[in-house]
Amino acid sequence: MARGVSPIHQRADYIETAPTGPAPHLHVVDPVPSHAQQKPRLSLDGVTVNFGARAVSAVQDVSLTIGAGEFVALLGPSGCGKSTLLNVMAGFCTPVQGRVLLDGEPLTGPSAKCGVVFQKHSLFPWMTALDNVAFGPRRLGLTNARQIAQDLLDIVGLAHVANEWPASLSGGMQQRVGIARALATRPPVLLMDEPFGALDAQTRSLMQEELLSIWDKLRPTVVFVTHDIEEAIFLADRVVVMQTYPGRIAREFAIDIPRPRSAEVLNDHAFIERRREITDVIRVEARKTFR
Ligand SMILES: Nc1ncnc2c1ncn2[C@@H]1O[C@H](COP(=O)(O)OP(=O)(O)OP(=O)(O)O)[C@@H](O)[C@H]1O
Ligand SMILES: [Mg+2]
């Protein structure tokens, strides 16, 4: 993308330090890219989530360790528990069994270390786009909150609607404001639930490249839920495929395609091969949902 990333993203406190400590416990069937072998940031240990009296758990016995600065994509058929798992990582949902560790500490509720982009936008309707994005930095007492918000709206291509209300923006625009808002407090962890699902193909492609550009500079740990196999491979270091009834990890794939990645990688042999492998697994899992 032509636009540069704002200087606010080049602050040293954004950048992850070099890998230290023991290698994370990773459920991978393939070699893990070296930059993913960093200290564990998020660890799920035997996590089970039940809703109501349902006989089958929404998520059952899921263990997953995500390294600091790693970009993980979560794929799987509708209803397999992706959003539930993300809510567990965000501290919004407490598992009935198992635990979540964030930087080695048990997660007992929402953490300021996690920025969340929800599947549906969740902007404050009584605030302008700019004030929505500036909300987090203001709560942190940052005197340049307005500037941070303006820079981020520029990055997501919405500087021209900074003073408009969410209700006057399209669904995709609202979602982009939500992304800017999640980035505004510079969280070391970004949890994103189908953030680009409502965007048209061109905007989606631009946003993917912009997200990679931001990630490359700041190296937050990202968990990115998507239904789009190509999007998952294009973005991630690791693709985790879930299965349904109950929601579990079916398989994991290391994505060892070199970075930086541009749209051309979609034609690379390695990309096509990964897409074929993942499509095969997803097809089997999706078929099970049509029982
Ligand atoms: N608040 C809730 N109350 C009851 N059941 C729920 C609740 N949230 C999720 N579920 C159930 O848990 C299961 C997993 O739902 P979840 O939303 O995590 O799936 P998902 O993989 O994100 O699906 P999608 O791709 O359609 O967004 C589903 O069977 C769903 O009906
Ligand atoms: Mg979901």
TrEMBL record:
Residues 42-269 form the ABC transporter domain. It comes from the Bacteria. PROSITE patterns: ABC_TRANSPORTER_1 (PS00211), ABC_TRANSPORTER_2 (PS50893). InterPro entries: AAA+_ATPase, ABC_transporter-like_ATP-bd, ABC_transporter-like_CS, ABC_transporter_ATP-bind, P-loop_NTPase. GO terms for molecular function: ATP binding; ATP hydrolysis activity. Keywords: ATP-binding, Nucleotide-binding, Transport. Belongs to the ABC transporter superfamily. This is NitT/TauT family transport system ATP-binding protein.
